Amino acid sequence: MVAINIVAKDGEAEAVADILESLIEPTMAEEGVKFFMPYRSPTDPNAFFIYELYVDEAGWDAHNKSVHFQNAVGELVEKVASRERVPFLPFVS
Questions:
Q1: What three-state secondary structure class fits 43?
Q2: CATH for 2-87?
Q3: How do the domains of the chain map onto residue ranges?
Q4: What does the mean pLDDT of the chain come to?
Q5: pLDDT 10s digits, 22-60
């Protein structure tokens, strides 16, 4: 599972929302993806959270190398004030 916090620069929130929304369909079509959903704060329109769930680490690696992800990151970099990706692994079975 990967949790991502993104804060858009002032004036860039709608562009960030559009980019994140455009990632849903191609990401969910990836073989190694179980779930991918961006969320937006109801109190801060510049704040976004993305929940990603992968079959395994190879699924996450494949997503990071995908053309749609690479293109989105290229567009996002100039529009965000901060971006933090935090992977989590289950520690109990």
A1: coil
A2: 3.30.70.100
A3: 2-87
A4: 96
A5: 999 999 999 999 999 999 999 999 999 999 999 999 999
Non-local CB neighbours of 86 within 8 Å, separated by 6+ positions: 2, 3, 4, 5
Other Cβ atoms less than 10 A from the Cβ of 27: the count is: 20
Whether the Cβ atoms of residue 78 and residue 8 lie closer than 8 Å to each other: no
Residue 88 in contact with residue 2, Cβ under 8 Å?
yes
Identify which of 26, 91, 18 has the alpha carbon closest to the alpha carbon of residue 62.
Answer: 26
* Residue with token string 């369909």: 25
State the Cα angle at 17 between 30 and 35, rounded to 5°. 30
C-alpha 72, offset from chain centre: 9
Rounded distance, CA 76 to CA 43, Å? 21
